[in-house]
Amino acid sequence: MKINNILVLLCVIMIAGCDLFKSADDLYTEVEIKRNSGDAKAALSLLEKIVGKHADHEKAPNAQYMIAEIYYRDMGDFSKAIGEYGLIRTNFPNAKQAPFSLFMQGFIYANTLSNFDQARAHYTEFLEKYADHELATSVTFELKYLGKDVQEIPELKHLTK
């Protein structure tokens, strides 16, 4: 009988130790620790749990945005980042991260992948949806000089000297 009680107790401890019962806030705290220590893959795993299990939580849109940022900045997987930014717009269209996500999609297409048609499409959509957003000026600048070399942009020429 004692062995059964010990086995049950061990099972409870193991289940409690995993992320099964952790709140979105607890998981998010762990994400920050993992990402700050350079463990992007562990951070991604935790962020995906937040988005999957706590999709209605206030941190879910930020978690999805951070997933995209990790793919873009930490892992250099630009196509995956574009897709993850797109999920913010699909799953959290009214979140404050939605305009930033659309901007980042255009930015990656323009400045990393040199896919100027896709960049133009995303930037144009941005201006149609978010004309008064703080990034609208940057989007207008990006569109004006899309595909140009830094040396061809008068406002940036000083950076090449």
How would you describe this protein?
This protein has eight helices and no strands. With 161 residues, it is an all-alpha fold. It starts with a helix and ends in a 17-residue tail after the last helix. The longest helix has 16 residues, at 2-17. The protein is elongated, with a radius of gyration of 21 Å. The protein has helices at 2-17, 24-36, 40-53, 60-74, 78-91, 97-111, 116-129, 136-144. Helix 3 runs antiparallel to helix 4, helix 4 packs antiparallel against helix 5 (78-91) and helix 6 packs antiparallel against helix 7. Mean pLDDT is 87; it is low at 8-17. 68% of the residues lie in helices and 0% in strands.
Topology of helices and strands:
Elements: H1 2-17, H2 24-36, H3 40-53, H4 60-74, H5 78-91, H6 97-111, H7 116-129, H8 136-144
Helix pairs in contact: 2-3, 3-4, 4-5, 5-6, 6-7, 7-8
Ends: how far apart?
80 Å
> What overall form do the CA principal axes indicate?
elongated
Could you tell me the mean pLDDT? 87
Percent of residues in helices: 55-70%
Largest sheet: none
Number of helices: 8
Low-confidence stretches: 8-17
Secondary-structure element sequence? HHHHHHHH
Q: How many β strands by DSSP? A: 0
> How much strand?
under 5%
* Rg for CA atoms: 21 Å
Indicate the structural class.
Answer: mainly alpha
Question: What's this, in brief?
Answer:
The chain is mainly α and 161 residues long. 68% of the residues lie in helices and 0% in strands.
What attributes does this structure have?
mainly alpha, single chain, 161 residues, elongated
